[in-house]
Specification:
The chain contains twelve helices and 21 strands. The protein has 485 residues and is an alpha/beta fold.
């Protein structure tokens, strides 16, 4: 989110720009997005569970100060499976004095979420707004170093714990040029420097660029961001995802080409996510349309609404969320839930694992219940430290595992499935067998595989080929269930 509530003058100008944009784009009825409504009996009764069926998340932004409100916290824990801190992980909150970090408020949200089996997105590391006063007074190379130091300090604290970070936020003007911020004035490569620093600080977390008014494919700002991402991917700059804030205002602000925007970014080789969704008057058609557009793009990994109830929103006077001020579900909630349930299980065209013959010999496939794909060693390498991934089952030796009497899962006869750590997000890799507890696994009757050392489950972020396997708190969802066959 760009500002604290109430929003400042800069944000009010952004809203007026959005209203102008909304008048120039088509309503959802002209968007070419087919909104499928299932039967009244939904497959799942909460947003998070319904999204998880197709390998996605449905999240919300949380304010630590509101967690003591039982209505607020009950809805948040029940309905969502991804949490973003509204303001508690931003630069002014985490480094109020240079070199002096504080994480109490951010940790309050992180602990609340993970104790309930919910994942957490980090927001945000480098941004022209909500900088602490000491940072606002810096410039040039001194500011550049302060930005990198801030990224290192915050990411070190949350290393291995978060699903994603919004590394850079709102760095473009409406005309597609770079925003003339103090960070931009350190040099045009500042965004690249931020992402490279972030990858070094935490190699396992997804790194995202986040912005508003990039939903309309024909808009100059969208093209500016797109060109940057394309350049980054062509040069190997580490970036994993693009967040489209999706603050829709006015009666027709869901662009007719919204799905084109999502698929065009995804075609560059990044995931896309709707990160700060709110819609004027909770338009049912717009909420259903944006949800369906995400569902229609395989690399659209999830949706986050910016707040729980209308009364919690920075746009509270516009009634923009899925729950009213009393915590009651609105019509828009039902439209979103129906759209999520219409997607059903992920990869419906993938044959169930039992239709593929198991490999010959003593080896066993480890097949994801959600994806139908096998745990695979990329490139059939035997190098220590190679992270394992999901991939189409093929019966080859790099997908052939043996569960030993000492609870090891071995591949190639001499390499063990190995946890590189014990925290949430720790990499799962192959390594020479050594008999230690980070190479021992409990294969449980509910389909989960838990580390003896960590007690955490094997977990995958998505369902596609190449999705990496990690450890995460067990939550019983399909992305943590596997069969040995």
């Amino acid at each position: 989110m760009a500002v604290l509530s109430p929003p400042g003058a800069a944000r009010r100008r952004s809203l007026r720009v959005r209203l102008l944009i909304s008048g120039a784009v088509a309503a959802v009825t002209a968007a070419g997005v087919a909104v499928v409504m299932p039967a009244a009996s939904a497959a799942e009764s909460t947003l998070g569970a319904a999204a998880a069926q197709s390998g996605r998340y449905f999240g919300t932004a949380i304010a630590a100060s509101r967690l003591s409100n039982s209505t607020y916290s009950t809805i948040a824990a029940r309905e969502f499976n991804m949490i973003t801190a509204e303001n508690e992980m931003k630069p002014d909150a985490t480094e109020p004095n240079r070199g002096q970090f504080t994480f109490s408020a951010g940790d309050q949200i992180y602990n609340w979420a993970t104790q309930r089996g919910l994942k957490v997105r980090g927001h945000t590391l480098a941004w022209h707004a909500q900088q602490p006063g000491w940072m606002q007074n810096l410039s040039g190379s001194t500011l550049r170093q302060a930005m990198i130091d801030h990224i290192n300090g915050v990411m070190a604290h949350y290393k291995g714990k978060l699903a994603a970070w919004d590394v850079v936020n709102e760095a473009f003007e409406e005309n597609g040029s770079r925003r003339n911020s103090n960070l931009q004035r350190t040099g045009n490569d500042w965004i690249e420097a931020a992402f490279r620093a972030a990858r070094t600080a935490d190699p396992s977390v997804k790194l995202c660029y986040n912005d508003y008014n990039i939903e309309n494919w024909s808009y100059a700002k969208t093209q500016g961001v797109y060109n940057m991402i394309r350049d980054f991917k062509s040069r190997g700059v580490p970036i994993d995802c693009v967040g489209l804030q999706t603050h829709f205002t006015g009666g027709s602000s869901l662009p007719g080409n919204f799905q084109t925007t999502l698929s065009s970014f995804a075609a560059l080789g990044v995931d896309v996510a709707l990160t700060e969704v709110d819609v004027t008057n909770s338009s049912t058609s717009q909420y259903a349309g944006l949800t369906q557009a995400c569902l229609n793009v395989p690399r659209c990994i999830g949706i986050t609404v910016w707040g729980v109830r209308d009364s919690d929103s920075w746009r509270s006077s516009e009634s923009p969320l899925l729950f009213d001020g009393n915590g009651n579900k609105k019509a828009a909630y039902t439209s979103v839930l129906n759209a999520l349930n219409s997607a059903g299980p992920s990869n419906p065209t993938t044959p169930p694992p039992t239709t593929t013959p198991p490999p010959s010999g003593n080896g066993t496939r480890i097949v994801g219940a959600q994806s139908g794909r096998c745990i695979d060693v990329p490139g059939a390498t035997q190098n220590n430290g190679t992270r394992v991934q999901l991939y189409d089952c093929n019966g080859q030796s790099n997908q052939s595992w043996t569960l030993t009497s000492s609870k090891q899962l071995t591949v190639y006869g001499s390499r063990c499935l190995d946890a590189a750590g014990s925290a949430n997000g720790s990499a799962v890799q192959i390594y020479s067998c050594n008999g230690q507890t980070n190479q021992q696994w409990n294969v449980n009757s509910n389909g989960t595989i838990t580390g003896v050392q960590s007690g955490r489950c094997l977990d995958v972020w998505g369902t596609g080929n190449g999705q990496q396997v990690q450890l995460y708190d067990c939550n019983g969802q399909a992305n943590q269930r596997f069969s040995l066959s």
